Amino acid sequence: MILETIIIVIYTIALLLIFMYALAQLNLLSNYLSSKKTKDNSPLYNLSKPDETPYITIQLPVYNEMYVMERLLDNIAKIDYPNNKLEIQVLDDSTDETLESTLLQIQKLQATGLDIQHITRTDRTGFKAGALKEGLKIAKGDIIAIFDSDFLPKTDWLKRTVPYFKNAKIGVVQTRWGHINRNYSILTRIQAFALDAHFTLEQVGRNSKGHFINFNGTAGLWRKACILDAGNWEGDTLTEDLDLSYRAQLKNWEFKYLEHVETPAELPIVISAARSQQFRWNKGGAENFQKMLGRVVKSKNISAKTKLHGLLHLLNSTMFLNVLIVGILSIPMLYIKNEYAHLRPYFYVMSSFVISTIIFFICYWFMYKNTYGGGFKSFINYIGMFFVFFSIAMGFSLHNSIAVLEGHFGKKSEFIRTPKFNITKYKDNWKNNKYMKHNLSINVIFEGLLMLYFGFGLYSAFIVGNQGGDFGLFPFHLMLFIGFGYVFFKSLVSKV
Question: I need a labelling partner for 331 at 20 to 30 A (CA). Which of 71, 373, 412, 491 fits?
Answer without folding.
Answer: 491
